[in-house]
Structure formats: C-alpha cells, structure tokens
Amino acid sequence: QVQLQESGPGLVKPSQTLSLTCTVSGGSISSRSYFWSWIRQPAGKGLEWIGRIETGGRTNYNPSLKSRVTMSVDTSKNQFSLKLSSVTAADTAVYFCAREVVVAASTLLGNWGQGTLVTVSS
Amino acid sequence: DIVMTQSPDSLAVSLGERATINCRSSQSVLYSSNNKNNLAWYQQRPGQPPKLLIYWASTRESGVPDRFSGSGSGTDFTLTISSLQAEDVAVYYCQQCHNIPWTFGQGTKVEIK
C-alpha cells in the first residue's frame, strides 16, 4: 500500500517561499497512470487543489495560484515537491500531498499524506 | 472553474438513521465518451486527511462499507449513509475531476443527534 509523507518548515515568513516535499513509499513514483498532487486546507475550512505533476514533468496548476507555484519530481528519491512564492497569511493551511490515479478518463485522489501545517507569520 | 455547492452545511442524524448530502455542480461533469460522471465523495474525520469513498458518482472505493452510496448525474448528486454509525461522524466533500482545476464542495458536517 503506497504511503505519502509531507515534510518541510512549519513556519514561513511573509513574502518568502514555502517549500514542501512529499516522500512516497510502498510504490514507485515513476509508475505510469499517476499524477502527484498538492491540496491545502486552511483551518476549519474546505479543500483547495493546488496542482499536480507527473513524472514526465508535465504539470497542471490551479490558475488562482499558478503565478506563484512550482512543482518538481525527484524520481531518484521517490519524492515530489511544492514551492509557493510570495506567501502571505492567506497561505496558512494544512498542506496535503496525494496520489491521483487515472481511471477511464477520470482521476481519483486515492491516497493522501497526513498533512503538514504551514503557518505564515513574521 | 466548476463551482461545487453542497447542502446542507451540517446535519445531525440519530444512530441507525439515514443521512443524505446533496452536491450540485455549476456545469455538467458527465463525460459523454464513457457516460461516467467525474464526481467523487470524500470523508474527512477530525485530524485526518480526506478518504476517497465514492467515484464516478456511484462506485464505492474498495473497502468502503455498503451503507455508503452515491447517486445522480450531470449536475446533481447525492451521498447517502443508509444507517449512520458513530464512526461516520466526519465532514463529507464532493469533488469534480472533470475540468482542471479540480474543485471541492464546501463540505457537510455530519454529527450524531
């Protein structure tokens, strides 16, 4: 059973860049038919899909965040990463990484990490 | 973006009773090529990540109890818990995977009456 684990600083200063890594275990990140995604959830609020990457490097980003988001994959470490630049307090949230599986033209967020809280504050 | 709207925002149901959650999308999420709806339901217990319950609007994920069922097509969908159990206390989200960006409903909190 694949497992995902987020890691990175829990506190980021305003205007700086948030950087998170998701480590995948129990399966290869290079497997086909998967995308690797980031989703966030402010405290007490709903879910926002940030974007996804496949191991070939193709990305899809939420247009609302696209100008500030960069995702990458490191297949040698079985990891993928998120960078969000110019953060403000509005970016404070629990950040989840997840695996999207493609099934008959649909994609399912079938496996999630536990999430990591990132607070933006000086 | 496709806007997903759930109703109600919260509901309290007695143990063993039925819980029904509605979800409406701002445009159809029916994929005409395979006649499947790109609509999923997730359960999020307190302090936990979301868990996939149902996809294609009505297909249960492996291991999900059969008291959970999904229905609907096009723009209107329903998640039903036929007999509420204590472990079903959670927030439930619908999500469309029809057009990027994927979007979620605001969530429906289910509690025990």
How does this structure look, described?
The complex is a heterodimer of chains A (122) and B (113). In chain A, strand 5 and strand 6 form a beta hairpin. With 122 residues, chain A is mainly β. Chain A is globular, with a radius of gyration of 14 Å. Chain A has no helices and eleven strands. Chain B has 113 residues and is mainly beta. Chain B is built from no helices and 13 strands. In chain B, strands 2, 6, 7, 8, 11, 12 and 13 form a seven-stranded mixed β-sheet that branches. Chain B has a four-stranded antiparallel β-sheet with strand order 1-3-10-9, with no helix packed on it. Chain B has a two-stranded antiparallel ribbon with strand order 4-5. Chain B is globular, with a radius of gyration of 13 Å. The model of chain B has no long low-confidence stretch (mean pLDDT 97).
N to C succession of SSEs of chain B:
EEEEEEEEEEEEE
Q: Name the helicity range of chain B.
A: under 10%
Mean pLDDT of chain B: 97
Largest sheet of chain B, if any?
Answer: 7 strands, mixed
Shape verdict of chain A: globular
Taking pLDDT < 50 over at least 5 consecutive residues as the criterion, the unreliable ranges of chain A are: none
Shape of chain B: globular
pLDDT averaged over residues of chain A: 95
Number of distinct beta strands of chain B:
13
Biggest β-sheet description of chain A: 7 strands, mixed
Rg of chain A (C-alpha, Å):
14 Å
Over the alpha carbons, how many angstroms does the gyration radius of chain B reach?
13 Å
| Number of helices, where a helix is a run of at least 4 consecutive DSSP H or I residues of chain B | 0
The count of strands of chain A amounts to 11
In terms of DSSP E residues, the strand content of chain B is over 45%
Multimer state: heterodimer
* SSE run of chain A: EEEEEEEEEEE
Low-confidence stretches of chain B: none
Strand content of chain A: over 45%
Describe the structure concisely.
The complex is a heterodimer of chains A (122) and B (113). Chain A is an all-beta fold.
